[in-house]
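Board notes, transcribed. Complex of a protein with magnesium ion.
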Amino acid sequence: MIKVKTREEIELMRESALVVSRTLGILAKEVKPGVSTLFLDKIAEEYIRSQDAIPGFLGLYDFPNTLCMSPNSQVVHGIPNDKPLKEGDIISIDCGALKNGFYGDHAFTFAVGEIKEETKKLLQATKESLYEGIRKLKAGNRVGDVGFAIQKYCEDRGYGVVRELVGHGLGKKMHEDPEMPNYGKRGRGKKLVNGMVVAIEPMINLGTHRIKQLSDGWTILTKDGKPSAHFEHNIAIVNGNPELLSTFQYIYKALGIENNEENEFRHTPLLI
Ligand code: MG
Ligand code: MG
């Protein structure tokens, strides 16, 4: 059952989304060769707790850490460890937090130093596909319209769209209805309505869309060992249109990047 949110609840969810957005902004300064994902996990946990929030993933379905840390060919759900990142890696960081009874859930794939041109293009296309999907998140459209837009954008460029893991409704639970697949058919699936809040999160592979799972019971990897990217935003439908609750602007500020990609989805000014 889809739980639509009131305007007041959406404003509380914006706070939760901004906690995870700021967390990724802090991590953006720390992602570099020689740093371990476990070190980054501790920074994130400390910051989230300092914001009167609690880590959203820690203990959720028994996940052992604050962040999902998925380098290179890992798609999602990687477990932080003490192995240092190295020049040329990519690292997908997924962060959840619970504040005021509502979850935020946000992800970004970072480059560690200089990365290959083909990997840069994969990251850019995955992020752009997220916005292609968000553009379709309008009242009256259907879940399949969002998935179709993401899938088409990525497959037109030769990338593999992961099928087994999907976006989701977000609220008092981390995973609410409806599921938001990154593939689909136009005009199919549940109807989108005002007050819905969802996490859209394309997981896009450089090669095959097929995946496998490590014996740790968590880590998802690409079947062909090629890189995978993951970007995730939290969006509400307000007055029929998508309203971005999370933001990558803290990351861009930390990295010294000017970027106005979010402006078309933001009707409330963001003060950073
Ligand atoms: Mg997430
Ligand atoms: Mg999610």
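The longest helix spans residues 7-30. The chain has one domain: 7-265.
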